[in-house]
């Protein structure tokens, strides 16, 4: 059967780093609180002239180079993002222009922090149908522009960045084995950001991200663990078969809790949240690129990507690398 295989990965984080100590200077918080509650030490913040499509273009160029695929060869670009510079055109169209990917059709997927997995699932299905042979799947966000920098409950958690993968159609064992997506709008009030459509007469006065962190935490641990087991079971595979998992990087305590629930040692639960914080849809492709370039995954390894975010949304992809 035709599979979509990840032939290249790339990531990009903005140059500017904001540490917890920098936050202490203007916010009622401390490095001690942030590290002990989240595992985050620092986050990257986009420059004034950098948008989500700029970060994505940088990450994409690296992924394309690794895959040996030219932008003009791409059939499809799908972007998980909720922080594009325009409501429309999509970030996908902006990235297509910047890369010169003339023949690719391009669109965005809105699933908050699960955006990359939802985008990946879309692309995989186009590969299976046969019309798409080479695609680019991206997660890119400038989350630091969506938070109230006076709200310590949210602003310490997020960072900016982008990650990308190039998919190629191939026969054989390697590739994306399955994807599993879920949503539950009943929990929408736990985590949301008002949009331009929120007010009939004027732009929303308060457009910042709102989160009931404690409640989100509980649902996230269960959903991320359950969807991992669902993906394994659908493929007749076991937890022991996994080389490594790449959960959404929101909080080190969530990563530890998932590892415990799945009986996976810490070495099998990838984490870079200490360095990049929560980059929403970008978190999984950045993590994957860091692990891949760091030599942590090899051809034939079984890995799992699992995400969770506002919506609520959650999902997983099981991959034979
Ligand atoms: O990416 C999408 C999915 N998002 C997530 O998965 C996030 C899930 N949630 C979390 O990661 C955690 O719930 C947080 C890190 C957001 C919060 O950690 P927590 O252990 O759940 O803390 P809390 O919200 O229960 O707050 C405990 C205390 C509160 O003070 P009081 O009311 O006990 O006096 C907060 O006001 O910590 C206070 N607090 C802070 N203190 C210093 C909240 N934020 C801060 C802060 N610095 N930045």
Record keyword descriptors for this entry.
321 residues; Peroxisomal Thiolase, Chain A, domain 1; binds oxa(dethia)-CoA; 26% strand; 2 domains; 5-stranded mixed beta sheet; alpha/beta
What's the layout of helices and strands?
Layout lengths: L1 E11 L3 E4 H5 L6 H8 L3 E4 L6 H16 L8 E5 L10 H9 L5 E5 L5 H15 L4 E9 L9 H4 L4 E12 L3 E9 L7 E2 L17 E2 L1 H22 L9 E4 L4 H10 L11 H4 L6 H11 L8 E8 L3 E8 L1
Parallel strand pairs: 4-5, 4-6, 11-12
Antiparallel strand pairs: 1-7, 2-3, 6-7, 8-13, 9-10, 12-13
Helix pairs in contact: 3-4, 7-8
The chain binds oxa(dethia)-CoA.
Note down, in words, how this protein is organized:
By secondary structure, the protein is an alpha/beta fold. It folds into two domains: 2-172, 3-Layer(aba) Sandwich (Peroxisomal Thiolase, Chain A, domain 1), CATH 3.40.47.10; 176-320, 3-Layer(aba) Sandwich (Peroxisomal Thiolase, Chain A, domain 1). Helices cover 32% and strands 26% of the residues. It is built from ten helices and 13 strands. The strands form four sheets. The protein has a five-stranded mixed sheet, with helices on both faces. Strands 8-13-12-11 form a four-stranded mixed sheet, sandwiched between helices.
């Amino acid at each position: 059967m035709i599979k979509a295989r990840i032939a290249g990965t790339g990531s990009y984080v903005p140059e500017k780093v904001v540490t917890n100590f920098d936050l202490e200077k203007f916010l009622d918080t401390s490095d001690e609180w942030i590290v002990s509650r989240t595992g985050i030490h620092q986050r990257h913040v986009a420059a004034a002239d950098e948008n989500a499509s700029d970060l994505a273009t940088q990450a994409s160029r690296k992924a394309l180079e690794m895959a040996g695929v030219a932008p003009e060869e791409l059939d499809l670009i799908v972007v998980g993002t909720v922080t594009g510079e325009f409501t429309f055109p999509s970030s996908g169209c902006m990235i297509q222009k910047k890369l010169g990917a003339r023949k690719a059709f391009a669109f965005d997927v809105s699933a908050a922090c699960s955006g990359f997995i939802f985008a990946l699932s879309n692309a995989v299905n186009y590969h299976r149908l046969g019309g798409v042979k080479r695609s680019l799947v991206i997660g890119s966000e400038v989350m630091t522009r969506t938070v109230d920098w006076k709200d310590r409950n949210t602003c310490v958690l997020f960072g900016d960045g982008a990650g990308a993968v190039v998919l190629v159609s191939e026969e054989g064992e390697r590739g994306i084995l399955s994807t599993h997506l879920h949503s539950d709008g009943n929990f929408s009030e736990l985590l949301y950001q008002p949009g331009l459509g929120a007010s009939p007469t004027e732009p929303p006065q308060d457009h910042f991200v709102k989160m009931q962190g404690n409640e989100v935490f509980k649902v996230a641990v269960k959903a991320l663990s359950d969807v991992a087991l669902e993906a394994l079971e659908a493929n007749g595979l076991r937890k022991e078969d996994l080389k490594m998992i790449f959960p959404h990087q929101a909080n080190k305590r969530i990563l530890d809790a998932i590892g415990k629930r799945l009986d996976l040692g810490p070495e099998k639960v990838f984490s870079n949240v200490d360095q990049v914080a929560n980059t929403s849809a970008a978190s999984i492709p950045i993590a994957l690129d860091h692990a891949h370039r760091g030599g942590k995954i090899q051809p034939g390894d079984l890995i799992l990507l699992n995400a969770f975010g506002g919506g609520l949304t959650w999902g997983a992809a099981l991959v034979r690398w």
